[in-house]
Design a protein that fits this description.
388 residues; alpha+beta; Arc Repressor Mutant, subunit A; 4 domains; three-stranded antiparallel sheet; 12 strands; 12% strand
């Protein structure tokens, strides 16, 4: 088959590149080989549509995915505090100065990080929170294959600062950080780095912005009456729809205030809404309740519903009364406040809700209206019979 054709192998390769940080030859040789075989057509497509750089190295393949805007959910999911990111950067500096396959002890990296840590207060490994932070960082480095454990167990370090672990630096340590057009110290902010990205994408910049937003975010919202990105989606929706359906498993949906990619196929590589988490039942039932009572709430020109926390709590109480008997035990028997807390966190992650700290209110976004959940008729019949 012609390697220049965008076939099923290329579609699968694109899916892997978009979902994974990188594909390591040592861990996923079949996936690595598949992308190597479709390298030309994939490079051409991601450059033309996204403006992304595809790096094909003898040890790994990586698609450098730079978003249009940074979002909170784009962070490292295992990290819990800014300290984790600071220690992570110190650890990267440590590993980049080591030779491939060089071994070192946990105590060595601990001592060196104390010297290069830039925080106002120094790292203190007698501090339990600092040790726990380092444990999270080391686990992330192992997950990314930047480090491998030779002997020992990092979890024990959280309880005992004197615990030793022997590590080895991998070949991937030198390639985690992407290269920048200029010295990173010349940038004053994260926005400067993102703005610099578009200086090299004058040709087709609007198209690339739109593709990045559609593929890297759950939804693209209309940000006002004059939103050039959303106007592009509406004006070229048929062309976008045809191209996306030809090259991926997604299809494009465009509404008045939102555009998104959806799929009917549940693939292991995808991060989809809803997934199997029990909190998803709560979200789907809350959406169904809101849809059924939409006349009770004013909707602004951007399709948002503004609610106070007290009103949300009242609604969650009503949703629990109506649907709660079918929820998992955690949410069936838990407090309304705890359920609401987890529900709001979920919606924020999926860009279905925004919190307005100035007015202490919440905006339910249009994407939540795209999903809803109801119990099947046989469940309702069994419920009615059990109540007789």
């Amino acid at each position: 088959m012609d390697s220049n054709l965008f076939d099923e192998k290329a579609e699968f390769g694109l899916r892997l590149l978009l979902e994974k940080f990188w594909i390591l030859r040592s861990k996923d040789p079949e996936q690595y080989q598949l992308i190597r075989e479709r390298e030309k057509v994939l490079k051409r497509y991601v450059d033309d549509k996204f403006g992304f750089d595809l790096t094909v190295h003898q040890h790994f393949i990586k698609l450098e995915k730079i978003p249009v805007q940074t979002k909170s959910w784009m962070g490292i999911q295992g990290f819990q505090a800014p300290l984790d990111y600071a220690i992570f950067c110190c650890a990267l500096a440590f590993t980049e100065n080591r030779s491939v396959d060089e071994q070192f002890l946990l105590s060595e990296i601990c001592e060196e990080m104390k010297d290069i840590y830039p925080g106002e207060f120094p790292l203190d490994w007698t501090n339990y929170n600092h040790r726990k932070s380092l444990v999270r960082v080391i686990k992330q480095l192992e997950k990314l294959a930047i480090l491998t454990t030779v002997d020992g167990e990092i979890d024990q370090f959280a309880q005992d600062e004197g615990q030793e672990v022997l590590y080895e630096v991998t070949v991937y340590a030198r390639y985690f950080m992407r290269t920048y057009p200029k010295d990173i110290f010349e940038y004053d902010s994260m926005e400067d780095i993102l703005e610099q990205e578009w200086e090299r994408h004058e040709a087709g910049a609007r198209r690339k912005r739109v593709y990045r937003q559609l593929f890297l975010s759950p939804v693209v919202y209309r940000r006002g009456e004059d939103d050039p990105d959303f106007a592009y989606i509406r004006n070229y929706r048929n062309r976008l729809k045809d191209d996306i359906e030809e090259h991926t498993l997604f299809r494009l949906e465009v509404f008045k205030n939102a555009a998104m990619l959806v799929t009917d196929e549940k693939k292991q590589e995808f991060t989809l809404f809803p997934d199997q988490k029990a909190i998803m039942d709560v979200a789907l039932h809350f959406s169904a309740y809101l849809r059924n009572h939409l006349n009770d709430f004013p909707v602004d020109t951007m399709g948002n519903v503004r609610l106070t926390y007290v009103r949300l709590e009242q609604m969650m109480t009503q949703v629990h009364q109506q649907y709660g008997k079918g929820w998992s035990k955690q949410y069936r028997n838990g407090t309304i406040q705890q359920t609401l807390h987890e529900f709001l966190a979920l919606l924020k992650d999926w860009e279905m809700l925004e919190e307005d700290s100035m007015t202490n209110t919440y905006r339910i976004k249009p994407l939540l209206g795209r999903v809803s959940g109801y119990y099947p008729s046989d469940f309702l019949q069994e419920e009615a019979q059990s109540n007789e």
